[in-house]
Amino acid sequence: MATPAVNIGIEEGARAEIAEGVSRVLADSYSLYLKTHNFHWNVTGPMFNSLHAMFEEQYTELATAVDEIAERIRALGAQAPGSYSDYQRLTAIPEESGAPEAMEMVRQLMRDHETVARTAREAFAVADGAHDEPTADLLTQRMQLHEKTAWMLRSMLE
Fold first, then answer.
1. What is the pLDDT of residues 115-148, one digit of tens each?
2. Which CATH number covers residue 44?
3. Residue partners of 6: CB distance under 8 A and separation at least 6
4. Structurally, how many domains does the chain consist of?
5. I need a surface site. Which of 57, 72, 80, 98 has the fewest CB within 10 A?
């Protein structure tokens, strides 16, 4: 038996465009999760305790977020990307395979949170234009979180 068509009041083409934007948010979020977890494991120096704990708090929040984001993509009737090659193709977050010094980690994460906020803002415009309130709400929450986190990280660099 065929799967019933998605009929949530948003035209199929708009749903696909929204899902593409939200997929970029998912890829950015997952890439940022991975980078933050890497930094949690590998941070050193006089701020070790505070950064180690802060990075854990951040990657834990991101782990929950990626699930919510992926579930929204599925609710729109699209497949959620779930492979490293998908994320590499979709993300705007630069990979860090090494372990830079602690304040460079903070600097990179600040920029990366700003990147996710910008990606979410782009996707928000499409969702808002299609009157997709649930997606717009999700993206608003993500923008708020990433902008606040970027501010907190930026404050550490002053």
1. 999 999 999 999 999 999 999 999 999 999 999 9
2. 1.20.1260.10
3. 12, 15, 76, 77
4. 1
5. 98
